From TrEMBL, chains A, B:
Molecular function as annotated in GO: metal ion binding; outward rectifier potassium channel activity; potassium ion leak channel activity
Main location: membrane
Source superkingdom: Eukaryota
Annotated TM spans: 7-32, 122-144, 164-190, 202-219, 231-251
Protein name in UniProt: Potassium channel subfamily K member
Spans annotated as Disordered: 285-314
Entry keyword Transmembrane helix: yes
Subcellular compartments: Endosome membrane; Late endosome membrane; Lysosome membrane
Length: 314, 314
């Protein structure tokens, strides 16, 4: 009982510290990069005025002008008037940047301009990336009982499926739920909010994001005059975190199924370990719903029964 | 003996199939995106000529012009004359794009322009990302004996260190080797080859790449008139693959050390499993150097002794 509480208090502590770490990063990035961005914005406006005031525009002067415009654009500073109102380094945007850094998504639609910002990015990610993996692993580990062990055990007891069939049916259902809940539905929402995104664009964004590829050709909340921009950015961060958790769960379920079907042995790869043992053990009929809770509370105490995630799950 | 061969033939098969998969991706991306890129390039040149030919340049016409320039630039098509010679979708660049997609680095300095390209990216990454993880896991698993078990066993036998100290010393040495060999030395090389990169820029690039963040503000081989561009791009791909492998090895060694020092138990996280058991077993004195090779050949046969990588290792 007390270990169950300890486990959840530890997880809550992890999540709170994670949020604090993101806020700290956002504050530092904003402090470092905001003045550099403001200067670049002023420079680019002066450049534009000078260009407009010159008597004749020739190819060379245009190219020199465009070179500097594109350079500024690379750092997320646009010369266009409607995009100069919002900053890339206000608190919400910095928080979003910090989040894409530690989750290794890295859209790169805004990047640090200053050497201090680059150096801080290195140190921030050096601690932040493993820490994010720690928090995600801790969350997934505690969700496994609810999302994987519970349903599989139920399929076997209630419907009488054998372990192989139960794991396959569970995987199929989980995949369907994740595809609908974390790809299709968010894509509908994104294509509704973002005027210029088609449904394919939105699905492409969801996929590129949740695989942590993060190409950055589509980034939510970047259109000029976006309503509730800060709230929108934070919602996308929550979507990203929960979505990554679900991706782990799906890949873990896949790895587990591959194990049971002998694929990992065939490819001579690491096994999913003790889960399989658990599946091979006779199931004790449980008449009350608290069983999984009891299992969850007992598990973390026994190192041999701990859930193990393989890199192949990513 | 035959299982040792089987293990290495399987790995060679994996790597060859991986290279074939990358080449296939490069060929498809190049076929799909090259015509779209060519059209955009022609459009942007026409736009530039029209802009230069107009009698007076006012703020509105300049802004309309810049909006289209920045839009094209987002897709990697630059209006500047010196960058129009090379394509983002020739075979080497497409190969580089395919590689950054499946390793989840995703610089995003070039992104698919067409809907077909976006849809293909989704399907390509859907298979490619897990496949890359499979190949990396298979490589790391076979390297562990050489890079981790061997040296640790040596420290214990030859120097007489206890398991905790041997693991800590091994981790410190491995970390130093990786920092020097995969961050400092490549950064020196990159800052030498890329004229505009400082040493900090190059270290920042190595770090952002090997963490698979891939912001894309620094991408090698993108300067106009780059010598041996294709060869350079392919070398960066090899650096990326081997570098990712070394990152796995370091994080695996860290996780192993954390396990032995009781950190994973403290945080109630998954263990590194059987490696620890191995460390706790009495070591049999081996007089000949072939011992680790024998270990390597015996290991993959026994599922219980297989190496397991946790997500926290990423």
């Amino acid at each position: 009982m007390s270990s169950w509480y300890k486990s959840w208090i530890l997880l809550t502590g992890f999540i709170l510290f994670y949020v604090a770490y993101l806020l700290f990063g956002a504050f530092v990035f904003s402090t470092i990069e905001r003045p550099v961005e403001d200067k670049l914005k002023r420079d680019i406006q002066v450049l534009k005025e000078e260009f407009l005031n010159q008597s004749c525009v020739n190819a060379t002067s245009l190219e020199n002008f465009l070179e500097r415009v594109l350079q500024a654009n690379k750092y997320g500073v646009s010369i266009l008037p409607n995009s100069s109102a919002s900053s890339n380094w206000d608190l919400a945007s910095s928080l979003f940047f910090a989040n894409t850094l530690v989750t290794t998504v890295g859209y790169g639609h805004t990047t640090p301009l200053s050497d201090t910002g680059k150096a801080f990015s290195i140190f921030y990610a050096l601690l932040g990336v493993p820490f994010t993996m720690l928090v995600l692993t801790a969350c997934v580990q505690r969700l496994m009982h609810l999302v994987t062990y519970g349903p599989i055990s139920m399929f076997r007891q209630k419907i009488g499926l054998d372990p192989l069939a139960a794991t396959a049916v569970h995987f199929a259902i989980l995949l369907l739920v994740v595809v609908l809940g974390f790809f299709v539905v968010p894509a509908v929402v994104f294509s509704y909010i973002e005027d210029t995104w088609s449904f394919l664009d939105a699905i492409y964004f969801c996929f590129i994001t949740l695989c942590t590829i993060g190409l950055g050709d589509y980034v939510p909340g970047e259109k000029p005059g976006q309503n509730f921009r800060s709230l929108y950015k934070i919602s996308v961060m929550v979507y990203l975190f929960v979505g990554l958790m679900m991706m782990y769960l799906v890949l873990r379920a896949f790895h587990r199924m591959a194990d049971l079907h002998g694929l990992t042995s065939f490819f001579q790869l690491p096994h999913c370990d003790e889960d399989i043992e658990e599946d091979r053990e006779p199931i004790i009929e449980a008449g009350h719903e608290d069983q999984h809770e009891v299992e969850a509370s007992a598990k973390p105490l026994d190192p041999a029964s701990q859930t193990s995630y393989n890199t192949i799950n990513r």
